[in-house]
Amino acid sequence: MSRHSSFHVEIETKDIGTSDGQNHDRQEHHEESPEQTPSDLSPSQHDEGELSKTAFAKPSVNDISLVPNGGLTAWLQVLSSFMLIVNTWGVVNTFGSYQTYYETGLLSKESPSTISWIGSLQGTLLMLCGIFTGPIYDAGYVRSLVLTGSFLVVFGQMMLSLSTTYWQVFLSQGLCIGLGTGCMFTPSVAILSTYFSTRMSTAQGLAAAGSSIGGVIYPIVFHRLLPTIGFPWTTRVLGFIMLATLAISNLVLKVRVLPAGQRKIIDLSAFREPPFVLFSLATFVGFLGLYTPFFYVQSYAIDTGLAKADLAFYLLAILNAASAFGRVIPSIIADRVGPFNVVIPCVFAAGVLCICLIATHSIASVIVICVLYGFVSGTFVSLPPTIFVAITKDRGVIGIRIGMGLAIMSIGFLVGAPISGAILHASDYRYVWLFGGLLTVAAGCLLIAARISHGGWKVMKAV
């Protein structure tokens, strides 16, 4: 095998809707007998050959006319993706509760910036792993990715329950769970593109709501159980919930069609396409600041005396509950007016609302901003996969393009929260909110440039 062949995976288009969903990447090679050429075949043999080709023709991933856009199997894949996202982004969205607990309890000797590296690594691996899981997905190992990710998430959660030092928490919660979420996220968004085309944003929005549901349920369970059964068993209970929900996803997962041809880890041609470059840059800049309130709004309410710990713990649940509506409703609208036209105003609004936290002087004002911020920020989490699909002409490289885009996005997520923590350590919360808000507004400007590059200057055009 040549040195270059290690960067490619040879596969063939397969419709495996009637199989167990696992493609073992096998190809059968049939050789013709040297004594018999096509011209030697009888007419009946020619007819049989044509019938055979017709009977066993496989749908192409680029043939949108064959996409079902509904039906029981298609909507079950939305359920599967929903459960996967509950345990990927839903887990990441829960870290704010852990951040507050670690600062005042288990890891109280560590600085907020140091602690935030745990959550940042977790979210970064969720997206960064896409650069490797994209080609693996395209090669057909979808079920293997989901099973591996399910194991790592549950195993990491159980190991977290035994952790007592910073590095143990970092390895179990940051690294192990992060790798598990990274294995599952690309399949959770890419598989829907094989079942939906005209209703893609709706399907993605419903699935992405799992992020908010997980971000509501997990913090509440954590907060309610922590005082009564302690950190170890609270963490194990969350692990059992993850195990049950991931079992549902694995049971209903069914791959319909896979792309054909050679799959690369990186599609360098994407960087010659301005819409992809501009949109990827927008997500990088946006995720530098977008998650600042998710990590620090609870500690902000406690440290400034605006709320007691019991109420402050629910601020993250409020953020995520509002985000559920922000992922579904705008996604449905995006099917009609275009995803760019929906995400741009929402991102600008998120930036302004983050800056408005500077002016809050009561818990009521913080709650109002949490509700509004949760709604508009949810759009910037749910729609990027849809936009990556929309700006990718060749549907056969969707897995790779999503993986590349998420990898770029992950760099912003990785350093954003620790930078906010460092700013907090050096000054106060005003500059934290200013940092998050201005970067999010800058992302909105880049989104406008990406929208123009992809769809032109017409304001009323659905893009």
What distinguishing features does this structure have?
about 475 residues, mainly alpha, Growth Hormone, Chain: A, two-stranded antiparallel sheet, 17 helices, 2 strands, about 70% helix, disordered N terminus
Summarize the structure.
With 463 residues, the protein is mostly helical. The protein has a single domain (64-256, 265-455), classed as Growth Hormone, Chain: A.
Describe the structure.
The chain is mostly helical and 463 residues long. The protein has a single domain, classed as MFS general substrate transporter like domains (Growth Hormone, Chain: A), CATH 1.20.1250.20. The protein has 17 helices and two strands. A two-stranded antiparallel ribbon has the order 1-2. The longest helix is centred in the middle third of the chain and has 53 residues, at 200-252. The model is unreliable at 1-57 (pLDDT under 50).
Instruction: Find the CATH topology.
Output: Growth Hormone, Chain: A
* Helix content percent band: 55-70%
What's the mean pLDDT score?
A: 81
CATH architecture: Up-down Bundle
Report the span from N to C terminus: 44 Å
Strand order of the main beta sheet, please?
1-2
Radius of gyration computed on alpha carbons: 23 Å
Q: What's the helix count?
A: 17
